[in-house]
Design the sequence.
């Protein structure tokens, strides 16, 4: 992460979830490194859905967990809120280990600090839009007027004003998910889980919802764990991405890191059809400045290469400026090299996929 | 191989083995007095606890009387308007019109008071059934072990004929209308329990997780999330439960005998007053349809989440109150004036008599033909059925040889030319059954066929179940009765599947036929089984043929429904592909639609058998032999042991056929 040091909001340490009969006993008996444990558990007919996962989420960060279906990402996000009881490991939220909380304490945390959006919306069919959004408040025992005011506010936030009295079945998929989002935000959570929130929507609606999500996040600045299987979606919204495969973390990094230096071919395949020029930023191909450069035509570190093309067609190098000082440069040569290397990796990824 | 061995074994049984009578008839000496054991165990239980049950009877009698008094005291105008408003609320003005027409019919026909008595019983039994069924369902949903136990019990309860468990209830609770209520409540809790389990299990995981993430406690989770999300399925359960209660309240008239509408029908049937029977039967039919549509209407609405405005309720309440006050000054609104009543019963009787006089000969001829050429051979076999009196000639050895030659050639052709050994075996079996009759074949041979079939269909587990079922039937001394019942049911099932299947295909291919059949099927399905006896009895008098007709009327619904559903459900893309390849309409039906409809058709066959078996018990009222009659006789003697043994035998047959057919579907 760049910028000033920020507090860690949520962290998980060596988190495991093993499904199957007698999973707990089998797990406590298994020995050795992660590899070995996974092999032992699989051999015993068990399914290690999340294996030895550790990562941190910083305050205000949007962490995207991605992987193909069956890679354990949905189980992982449920372990973070203990909707699914982890087999082993720690989940540290605001300095407290969630695993050590009693049922009542956990309920309190969920009521006030967490919100979650589901792929299939999870709206209560017998309640109106307003009542659905107010539902978490009602569960907390908030007064009627309070509830209505807060719910109406949330509905306004997601752009559904006027549909307060509709029932979920009268809404389109995109509208239903807006209700889901409004509901998850109603209690003003510190931590926001989104489990493939836009995967069930049509591509155009999906794009629109992603844009709105970015707009919301821009104002709300929540700490977010976002699940998706769509790398382009991850690129668009992620500060950092966790790539999972078969229950294990393959790589954690900024989107550009994944594109520029994928940990293995699995990641390479994921990033194969990424629009490189939009993901790679000036900072990624920064070169030291040989002689002092004027600040004319300067760019910032996080400017995507795409925005530099026109300028680089005119001059060979552009200065990178951070807080008024030239710190490096972008050259046509460097850009060519980086793009060429990334597309070569992408090609390998593609050919692997076809094979 | 195994089949060849069984065939040889049967051959030996029916020829050389005939000298060993144990092979042929299940020997009485081998039977165990199971019915006595049950009877004694039951008596041992009843003796000390009788005060409890009699106390419960007394406790239920009070609210029943109060409810009946209340419904009797309320002005008809208020109740009828209430029904119409309810119908409107449930599904709109068309049902409201129907409710108005039904109320008018009941009033004008002079059936108001027995109808109210029946409704009072339904109104008392329904909450009992709904609440206990709901409780069981929740328990079954929460605890895995409980679910297995409950599902097993429910399956038994659904396959044991209604009359059979009227008997222990009768013994426990004594005679009278309360027995009907208890029996109805127990009988009807099954669908509620099942729908509760289903509904709760169907709540989408995301809704449950959303509830958890909102921080619901266990209680909030159940009452605010799971229960309302399952509401639609729960109301479907209420609908089925009310219908079951209603049907059972009607049937309970057989033992109850208060002045309710079921008793009226039974009385007219016993006195052969068919005009009156038909008219009062129509009351039951109208009530059944009305209750069904109202509850189903509310269930359908629950999914949509629409809500009535408070104003509407206030207005409705005000209207009812106004009518009540008006009735206090205008007696015509309070008691329906007798001079407005009109009963066409006598006219109807006249028409019926004329009809019977005109077509009686033709109908008797038809009936005799079916009995002599179809029912008798199947029951006692060609060997006994063919006589100069029935067929006009006696069976000669040459004819017997000819019969077996034809069977042999057909079976051989199937095996050698078609290479279909299963078909060949089926032909041999059919020939064997037809020759000796279901009641005449060697029991051990029949048992061997069933056991081998179950083993091949469902492996060791099904074999074990079949062995247990056959052992129970044989050892309890019900074998002969069972075969007797089996023949009637099998015949009805075959007729239903052929006739119903054809109708189903026709309806699937022709929208007009489908639209024509749908209301008839709906009506047949909502009607209490009891009512269906009336027309059959009217036309063909007491006897097995009448029972057959009644069973067919009831059990023909599932094959039509399922076949139509299956054939219509064939994937349009595949049908299009077949058409593109140049298939004719018949070819599409034969090669595409019917094979694709197979799972649905198998379900239909299964439902047909279960329906036929359940109707069999009711049909005992119009004269059958076998298990159903045994139950009916036990009922009149309040013999819990005999009744339960016969009932369990029917349940064994039903559960075995159900498992065998499901095994067939699984293999496909």
Sequence:
């Amino acid at each position: 992460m760049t910028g000033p040091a920020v507090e860690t909001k949520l962290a998980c340490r060596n988190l495991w979830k093993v499904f199957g009969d007698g999973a707990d006993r089998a797990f406590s008996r298994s020995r050795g490194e992660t590899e070995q444990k996974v092999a032992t558990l699989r051999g015993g007919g068990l399914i290690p859905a999340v294996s030895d996962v550790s990562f941190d989420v910083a305050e205000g960060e949007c962490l995207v967990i991605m992987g193909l279906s069956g890679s354990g990402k949905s189980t992982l996000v449920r372990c973070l809120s203990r909707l699914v009881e982890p087999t082993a490991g720690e989940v540290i939220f605001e300095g407290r280990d969630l695993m050590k909380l009693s049922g009542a304490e956990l309920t309190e945390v969920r009521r006030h600090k967490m919100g979650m959006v589901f792929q299939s919306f999870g709206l209560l069919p017998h309640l109106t839009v307003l009542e659905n959004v107010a539902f978490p408040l009602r569960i907390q025992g908030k007064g009627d007027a309070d509830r209505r005011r807060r719910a109406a506010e949330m509905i306004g936030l997601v752009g559904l004003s006027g549909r307060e009295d509709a029932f979920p079945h009268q809404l389109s998929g995109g509208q239903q998910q807006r209700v889901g989002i409004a509901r998850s935000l109603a209690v003003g959570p510190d931590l926001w889980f989104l489990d493939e929130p836009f995967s069930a929507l049509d591509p155009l609606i999906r794009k629109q919802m992603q844009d709105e999500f970015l707009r919301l996040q821009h104002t709300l600045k929540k700490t977010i764990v976002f699940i998706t299987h769509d790398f382009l979606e991850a690129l668009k919204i992620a500060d950092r991405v966790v790539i999972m495969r078969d229950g294990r973390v393959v790589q954690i990094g900024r989107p550009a890191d994944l594109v520029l230096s994928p940990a293995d071919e699995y990641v390479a395949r994921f990033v194969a059809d990424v629009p490189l020029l939009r993901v790679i930023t000036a900072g990624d191909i920064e070169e030291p400045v040989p002689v002092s450069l004027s600040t004319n035509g300067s760019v910032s570190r996080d400017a995507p290469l795409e925005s530099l093309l026109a300028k680089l067609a005119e001059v060979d190098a552009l200065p990178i400026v951070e807080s008024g000082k030239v710190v490096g440069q972008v050259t046509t040569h460097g850009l060519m090299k980086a793009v060429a290397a990334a597309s070569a990796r992408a090609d390998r990824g593609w050919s692997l996929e076809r094979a | 191989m195994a089949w060849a061995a069984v065939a040889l074994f049967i051959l030996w049984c029916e020829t050389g083995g005939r000298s060993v009578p144990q092979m042929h008839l299940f020997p009485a000496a081998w039977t165990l007095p199971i019915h006595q054991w049950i009877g004694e165990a039951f008596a041992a239980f009843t003796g000390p606890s009788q005060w409890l049950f009699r106390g419960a009877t007394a406790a239920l009698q009070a609210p029943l009387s109060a409810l009946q008094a209340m419904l009797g005291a309320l002005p008809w105008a208020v109740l009828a308007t209430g029904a119409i408003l309810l119908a409107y609320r449930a599904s709109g003005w068309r049902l409201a019109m129907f409710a108005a027409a039904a109320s008018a019919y009941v009033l004008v026909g002079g059936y108001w008071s027995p109808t109210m008595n029946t409704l009072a019983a339904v109104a008392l039994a329904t909450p009992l059934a709904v609440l206990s069924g709901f409780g069981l369902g929740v328990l079954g949903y929460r605890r895995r072990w409980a679910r297995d136990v409950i599902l097993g019990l429910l399956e038994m309860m659904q396959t044991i004929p209604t009359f059979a468990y009227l008997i222990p209830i009768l013994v426990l609770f004594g005679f009278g209308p309360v027995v009907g209520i208890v029996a109805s409540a127990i009988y009807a809790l099954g669908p509620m329990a099942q729908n509760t389990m289903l509904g709760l299990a169907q709540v989408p995981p995301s809704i449950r997780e959303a509830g958890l993430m909102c921080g619901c406690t266990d209680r909030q989770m159940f009452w605010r999330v799971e229960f309302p999300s399952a509401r639609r399925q729960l109301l479907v359960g209420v609908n089925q439960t009310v219908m079951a209660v209603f049907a059972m309240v009607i049937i309970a008239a057989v033992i109850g005998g208060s002045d309710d509408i079921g008793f009226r029908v039974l009385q007219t049937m016993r006195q052969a007053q068919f005009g009156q029977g038909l008219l009062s039967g129509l009351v039951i039919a109208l009530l059944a349809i009305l209750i069904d549509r109202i509850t189903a209407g509310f269930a359908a609405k629950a999914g949509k989440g629409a809500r009535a405005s408070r104003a509407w309720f206030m207005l409705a309440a005000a209207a009812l109150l106004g009518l009540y006050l008006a009735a206090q000054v205008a007696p015509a609104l309070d008691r329906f004036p007798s001079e407005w009543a009109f009963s066409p019963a006598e006219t109807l009787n006249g028409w019926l008599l004329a009809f019977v006089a005109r077509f009686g000969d033709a109908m008797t001829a038809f009936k005799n033909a079916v009995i002599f050429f179809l029912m008798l051979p199947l029951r006692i076999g060609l060997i006994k059925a063919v006589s100069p009196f029935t067929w006009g000639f006696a069976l000669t050895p040459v004819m017997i040889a000819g019969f077996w030659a034809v069977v042999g050639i057909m079976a051989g052709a199937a095996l050698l030319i078609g290479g279909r050994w299963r078909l060949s075996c089926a032909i041999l079996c059919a020939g064997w059954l037809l020759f000796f009759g279901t009641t005449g074949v060697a029991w051990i041979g029949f048992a061997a066929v069933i056991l081998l079939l179950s083993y091949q269909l469902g492996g060791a587990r099904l074999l074990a179940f079949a062995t247990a079922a056959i052992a129970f039937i044989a050892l309890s001394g019900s074998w002969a009765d069972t075969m007797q019942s089996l023949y009637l049911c099998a015949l009805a099932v075959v007729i239903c599947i052929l006739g119903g299947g054809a109708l189903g295909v026709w309806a699937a291919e022709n929208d007009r036929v489908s639209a024509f059949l749908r209301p008839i099927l709906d009506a047949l399905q909502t009607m209490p089984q009891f009512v269906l006896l009336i027309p059959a009895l009217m036309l063909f008098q007491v006897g097995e043929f009448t029972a057959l007709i009644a069973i067919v009327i009831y059990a023909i619904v599932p094959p039509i429904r399922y076949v139509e559903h299956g054939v219509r459900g064939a994937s349009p893309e595949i049908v299009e592909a077949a058409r593109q390849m140049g298939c004719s309409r018949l070819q599409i039906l034969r090669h595409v639609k019917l094979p694709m409809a197979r799972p649905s058709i198998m379900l239909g066959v299964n439902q047909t058998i279960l329906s036929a078996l359940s109707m069999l018990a009711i049909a005992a009222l119009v004269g059958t032999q076998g298990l159903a009659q045994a139950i009916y006789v036990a009922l009149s003697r309040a013999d819990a042991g005999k009744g339960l043994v016969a009932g369990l035998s029917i349940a064994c047959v039903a559960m075995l056929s159900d498992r065998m057919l499901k095994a067939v579907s699984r293999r496909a």
About this structure: The longest helix of chain B spans residues 34-73.
